[in-house]
Amino acid sequence: MTSAPVPGATSHLTTTNVGATVATTFDRLILEPRRTDDSALRPHRTGARENEAAQSPSLMLLVLLAAAGIIVYAAFLLNPANRGDWLPYTLVIAAETILVVHALLAMWTVLSSGWNPRGFAFHDAQERLYDLAQILRDGTEGQPWRWQIHLDDRPVEVDVFITTYGEDLGTIRRTVTAALQMQGRHATWVLDDGRSDDVRDLAAELGARYVRRLSSGGAKAGNINHALTLARGEYFVVLDADFVPRPEFLHETVPFFAGPDVAFVQTPQTYGNYDNVISRGAGYMQAVFYRYVQPGRNRFNAAFCVGTNVIYRRAAVDAIGGIYTDSKSEDVWTSLMLHERGWRTVYIPTVLAVGDTPETVEAYTKQQLRWATGGFEIMLTHNPLSPKRNLTMDQRIAYFVTATHYLTGIAPFLLLLVPPLEIYLDLSPMDLKTTATTWALYYAGFYVLQILLAFYTLGSFRWEVLLLSAVSFPIYLRALVNAITRREQAWHVTGRKGAYRSPFAFMLPQVLVFQFLLLTTVVALWKTHTSGIFTLALAWNATNTVILGGFIVTAWREGRRARAEARAARRAEVARERAAAEPTRPAYREVTS
């Protein structure tokens, strides 16, 4: 069911701030194409600015040093002379092999991240995107959302799909309002799988088209495919309900489609709600990926879609039968299908939409479970390294990294088991003939340099990332089991609001492991006290205990805060009910004679 835009509903967009912005935009539209001095043009090129960090000689040197440190550390581990007892040694080798291989492949990709996908075709198309004479004739200089978009000197239609599934109205309002304001003529659609009459009324109020389907088959992918049966644009944007687009979104992405083989243009997921430990950790975990890894994949034509902040060529999606619906990670699977068909994809690290990262243990758990299950499904059912796949070698490696990435989240669990084996059973992973200083140097070659690299790319040491990386192994183990057993994973939306549930309902494995490690640390301290020998196993186990304990404290604070907010909401509701039930007293006026 669809409803057309309400006439005149977009009149609210012409505010003072928007008017000032579009005046500047129109001035630049007139002036910039007429510049002939390339040195004057260059500072205004977005691509030049966003690739400066990736091209930094300091970053390249640090990456090379980190790669060398990884190789030296791997040689140290694999040296037969250093091998200890088989069980803990096997655990260490299995975990470290996963981490080392992924770290090296990440270094390889980061070294390619300085490549700029914007060429002459892009800049030429961008400068000819609008017909200035038509804008002047129509008198729409101050209404950029009405400027007709052109490619190859012909007008093109663009649809903007905003997918919703139970998000609060304030969140949807912000996104829809911003989408309507985007520069370039387009149709904005609200695809409501939550079947909310309030969302329908909101779309009508703002002037957006509204779509509600009868079933929820295919989850988000099915929602988009259903909308494609109604929309007719040659290109379509997908935005999650909590990602607010910037006005220049279409201006910075549509010109890439001057290349006839471009299937989609992906922009980063950037967040504006770094308000607590969970949201900061979840957001910073992805920062390096979006700043350096995805840009590096451009070099290999292996950049993949991340589900939002993306614009597709409809013909490419139609060629593969629509958005992939047989997985909850429809974005990566759709990208893989497109690459196998020979399409090209583009990623730009330009921030063109800002959204919300998970703020609670529940939201983080459900998000990571969905993402990891999709990755493992590729690994188990559609191995990119198989000769059956129509991919280049670079693409095979890139998708193999994607499919196996969440194994790096299981590796910390294997390493957690090593210290207790030594503390309880005297089984040691390494039979070291070297001094503690020499061992520390080998260890620093891998881990310390990795921390320095993360420090450089993120601007500071983000301990929240270390915390979440170390405690998320139950999520990824469950995702692996889901993928192996083909268990259906329910769809959950990051920004969806619902009834409060204690964070401890989603972290029972972490609590049990923490209790075991705490007991093990006490046993190790007692053994150290009786023997007088301080062991690496004690230090290692105590560190793991502190990290898991930090996560439990974080969850406890989250639960306390949520309960306080719930009590305050209940008190406010009771007060409103009492005020409504209180009888109105008649007003009397004193009369004096």
Automatic annotation (TrEMBL):
Lipid bilayer topology: Multi-pass membrane protein
Segments traversing the membrane: 59-78, 90-111, 397-419, 439-458, 504-526, 533-556
Subcellular localization: Membrane
Coiled-coil region(s): none
Source organism superkingdom: Bacteria
Pfam families in alphabetical order: Glyco_tranf_2_3
Keywords assigned: Glycosyltransferase, Membrane, Transferase, Transmembrane, Transmembrane helix
Broad class of where this protein is predominantly found: membrane
Record's protein name: Cellulose synthase catalytic subunit
Organism of derivation: Cellulomonas wangsupingiae
